[in-house]
TrEMBL record:
<keyword id="KW-0067">ATP-binding</keyword>
<dbReference type="InterPro" id="IPR003593">
    <property type="entry name" value="AAA+_ATPase"/>
</dbReference>
<dbReference type="InterPro" id="IPR013563">
    <property type="entry name" value="Oligopep_ABC_C"/>
</dbReference>
<dbReference type="InterPro" id="IPR017871">
    <property type="entry name" value="ABC_transporter-like_CS"/>
</dbReference>
<dbReference type="Pfam" id="PF08352">
    <property type="entry name" value="oligo_HPY"/>
</dbReference>
<dbReference type="InterPro" id="IPR050319">
    <property type="entry name" value="ABC_transp_ATP-bind"/>
</dbReference>
<comment type="similarity">
    <text>Belongs to the ABC transporter superfamily.</text>
</comment>
<protein>
    <submittedName>
        <fullName>Peptide ABC transporter ATP-binding protein</fullName>
    </submittedName>
</protein>
<dbReference type="GO" id="GO:0016887">
    <property type="term" value="F:ATP hydrolysis activity"/>
</dbReference>
<feature type="domain" description="ABC transporter">
    <location>
        <begin position="6"/>
        <end position="251"/>
    </location>
</feature>
<dbReference type="InterPro" id="IPR003439">
    <property type="entry name" value="ABC_transporter-like_ATP-bd"/>
</dbReference>
<dbReference type="GO" id="GO:0055085">
    <property type="term" value="P:transmembrane transport"/>
</dbReference>
<keyword id="KW-0813">Transport</keyword>
<dbReference type="Pfam" id="PF00005">
    <property type="entry name" value="ABC_tran"/>
</dbReference>
<dbReference type="GO" id="GO:0005524">
    <property type="term" value="F:ATP binding"/>
</dbReference>
<dbReference type="GO" id="GO:0015833">
    <property type="term" value="P:peptide transport"/>
</dbReference>
<dbReference type="InterPro" id="IPR027417">
    <property type="entry name" value="P-loop_NTPase"/>
</dbReference>
């Protein structure tokens, strides 16, 4: 088994939105990511997956809980050089390729922001690094002198990827990097990320709501709902034998190319809308939409349990 590079233990993130209201965006989540793997994190809008990713790279401070990267507690008392090294080794690719690039900066300077901040190169060497990064993500050196508005959405996302790679990170949080792109370009960006992972021995947290795309790139997958982790398993096992009713419903909604197989598969239609994270249901968060809800689901929160080897879920169906 590969060594763990990231450990998330009992992490919570609550946002105050008024004198008496709190959004429980991430509520007591624990998992780990191994060196060299891609961990896919899925869930519908408002599940807390992006907030979790931002906590991992330090853009949000956890309300409580512990995040460790490469053996260091990120909220701990770290010396300046260690803190700077960890900041360099953890990078993020943002969801919106339009909003995440400064429109007043040339592309070469955008990519070199991290190079300058960490004093990795100057002058000609800096320029050569930028050119090499542009070529690595499928762009051209002459693009360095252009501004972001001169590029398509897919090209802008490639620029964002080049910026993340510039400081030679070990770990990248890709926060829905394809959701704002045309379907025709999504596969290109996912394939690029996969190729870069193999070349640079990278580890990814790949956040998305498209389970089909997550399956393509991920070694293991975690499923979130309303601030809670519902299930974690290897990509193949999650798709072949999902345990949690929410995961089963998500998978049943993925289109199947074969009409014959599509007719055989039962489509699970969830009733109602997700409850508000300001006032989540008691017990299991999913119980108000679950077709198998029992009395205990209202009274008691299900424990996080390893039902099969390396296959975890939080559901009372497996605690009987």
């Amino acid at each position: 088994m590969s060594e763990e590079i990231l450990q998330v233990e009992n992490v919570k993130k609550y946002f105050r939105i008024g004198p008496n209201q709190t959004v429980k965006s991430v509520d007591d989540i624990s998992f780990s990511i191994r060196k060299g793997e891609t961990f896919g994190l899925v869930g519908e809008s408002g599940s807390g997956k992006s907030t979790l990713g931002k906590m991992i790279v330090g853009l949000h401070a956890p309300t409580s809980g512990t995040i460790r990267f490469d053996g260091h507690e990120l909220a701990g008392d770290l010396d300046r050089s260690t803190r700077k090294r960890l900041n360099r080794e953890m990078q993020m690719i943002f969801q919106d390729p339009h909003a995440s690039l400064n429109p007043r900066m040339r592309v070469g300077d955008i990519i070199a922001e991290g190079i300058d901040a960490h004093q990795l190169a100057k002058g000609k060497e800096r320029q050569e690094m930028v050119y090499a990064l542009l070529e690595k993500v499928g762009l051209h050196p002459e693009h360095a002198q252009r501004f972001p508005h001169e590029f398509s959405g897919g090209q802008r996302q490639r620029i964002g990827i080049a910026r993340a790679l510039a400081v030679k990170p070990k770990f990248i949080v890709a926060d829905e990097p394809i959701s704002a792109l045309d379907v025709s370009i999504q596969a290109q960006v996912v394939n690029l990320l996969d190729d870069l992972k193999q070349e640079g021995n990278l580890t990814y947290l790949f956040i998305a709501h498209d389970l089909g795309m997550v399956k393509h790139i991920s070694d293991r997958i975690g499923v979130m709902y309303l601030g809670k982790m519902m299930e974690i398993a290897t990509s193949s096992e999650l798709f072949e034998e999902p345990l949690h009713p929410y995961t089963q419903a998500l998978l049943s909604a993925i289109p199947i190319p074969s009409p014959r197989l599509a007719r055989k598969r039962e489509r699970i239609v969830l009733s109602g809308d997700p409850p508000s994270p300001v006032n989540p249901p008691s017990g299991c968060r999913f119980r108000t939409r679950c077709p198998y809800a029992m009395d205990i689901c209202k009274e008691e929160e299900p424990a996080w349990k390893e039902v099969r080897k390396n296959h975890w879920t939080a559901c009372h169906l497996y605690h009987q």
